Amino acid sequence: MKRLTASLAAAATALAFAGAAHAADLKKGEELVNKGGCIACHGAGLDKPIAPNYPKLAGQYQSYLFHALQQYQAKHQTPLYGRNNAIMSGMVAQYNTQDLQDIAAYIASLKGDLYIRDEMH
Ligand code: HEC
């Protein structure tokens, strides 16, 4: 019985990891953000934008970030809808949906001014 419990626990752990890796890959998100040069405008830690009308990103909700990124992409592909911003539409054109998930997950994990979910971690 003890052995069964242990192997069930191991299986559950493996499943949990597999699930997380599929949903979003923080490491990949970090690489994409670093390569993408996002800090040039959104600032150090994506929390210190270089202009007052440039948004802080660090710690924003993952689903919000993902949706925002997708909307810039939609605008780029079909001019009739999506978020209208020439800079960001150009920035996200190169990424696929999984990339946007990874980027959003990584940015959401950064503890910036917008990060208000300590109780959940
Ligand atoms: C050249 C400057 C510049 C660069 C580089 C840049 N951004 Fe942006 N970003 C902006 C501006 C300006 C906005 C606000 C656009 C608007 O009004 O919709 C913005 C908005 C966003 C938003 C929406 C935020 C919100 O609260 O709605 C996200 C997410 C975002 N950027 C992510 C990124 C990522 C990820 C990268 C790197 C791949 C990046 N940005 C690179 C200038 C930049």
- Ligand types: heme C
- CATH-scheme architecture: Orthogonal Bundle
- Total strand segments: 0
Residue stretches low in confidence (pLDDT < 50, at least 5 long) are: none
The end-to-end distance, rounded to whole angstroms, is 32 Å
What does this structure look like?
Residues 24-111 form the Cytochrome c domain. Keywords: Electron transport, Heme, Iron, Metal-binding, Signal, Transport. Residues 1-23 form the signal peptide. With 121 residues, the chain is mainly α. The chain has a single domain (24-120), classed as Cytochrome c-like domain (Cytochrome Bc1 Complex, Chain D, domain 2, Orthogonal Bundle). It is 60% helix and 0% strand. The chain has six helices and no strands. The longest helix is centred in the N-terminal third of the chain and has 22 residues, at 2-23. The protein is globular. It starts with a helix and ends in a 12-residue tail after the last helix. The protein binds heme C. Residues 33, 36-38, 40-42, 54-55, 57, 60, 65, 68-69, 83, 85, 87-88, 91, 103 line the site of heme C (HEC).
